[in-house]
């Protein structure tokens, strides 16, 4: 009788865990940057040795009719409506230029071959701070790229580059900032008018999402890398990645919040090798 009781109890426990879960919100999401074989960064990798560099540039355009940008209905009736409506009040998922069809907020980057890594550049080519502001009731910019860590061959681990994320509130109203990733636990807090908060993040295996608890419709994203060879398309869909190592075959990749990581279809394929001093143009299209 006792054996049957404990069996039913264990079954109930497993059902409860299946219904309600006991994991973080990001667990089970597909990693954009899977860990190395053997787990973590403990596997030795070979450096991409480059003495010459090139540039990757291009434009991303929408194929077909761009989706409409719907009004954010949550703003209506909110206590901060009068200030929020001074800024952008439409959904930020698809921002497409009406004339050129250029698509904003697409992240593009290059990946090294398996088992290799980009050494930390001898010459500093990244900013100390990446600034995110909240002038009205949207994050500006909506998407950022960060280079918070670099691979250190001596320790076979990622070490900090010193780059920080600075979150500002230039609005006269209270904002809240909170972020969540897979390797960056949820953090944040209130950001008073005219103040800022500074965060030092880690390279994450997936995109890091931004939210404001005061204005629930506010969203944003950060993509983190262990190298500085990444960029975000501007309002016209244009991007430039400078100082990319030449002479090695790299893989050109892209991300959009509605599609996540994807392989862009570019002329010649997304396996690329830059010549010294070359500017390679990699235009591609995207659809919903």
CATH topology: Immunoglobulin-like
**CATH architectural type:** Sandwich
What is the succession of H and E elements? HEEHEEEEEEEEEEEEEEEEEEE
How many distinct beta strands? 21
Low-confidence stretches: 1-28, 36-40
CATH homology-level superfamily: Cupredoxins -  blue copper proteins
Shape category: globular
**Counting H and I runs of at least 4 residues, what is the number of helices?**
2
CATH C-level class is: Mainly Beta
Rg estimate, integer Å: 22 Å
Structural class: mainly beta
Q: Main sheet, how many strands, which sense, barrel?
A: 5 strands, antiparallel
- Measured by DSSP, the beta-strand proportion falls in 25-35%
Rounded average pLDDT: 89
Can you give the helix content as a percent range? under 10%
Number of structurally distinct domains? 1
How far apart are the first and last residues' alpha carbons, in Å? 58 Å
Report on the architecture of this protein.
- The protein is mainly β.
- 8% of the residues lie in helices and 33% in strands.
- The strands form six sheets. Strands 3, 15, 17, 18 and 19 form a five-stranded antiparallel beta sheet that branches. A five-stranded mixed beta sheet has the order 6-14-13-10-11, with no helix packed on it. Strands 2, 16, 20 and 21 form a four-stranded mixed beta sheet that branches.
- The protein is globular and about 55 Å long.
Short description:
With 288 residues, the chain is mainly beta. It has two helices and 21 strands.
Which characteristics define this entry?
single chain, mainly beta, 5-stranded antiparallel β-sheet, 5-stranded mixed β-sheet, globular
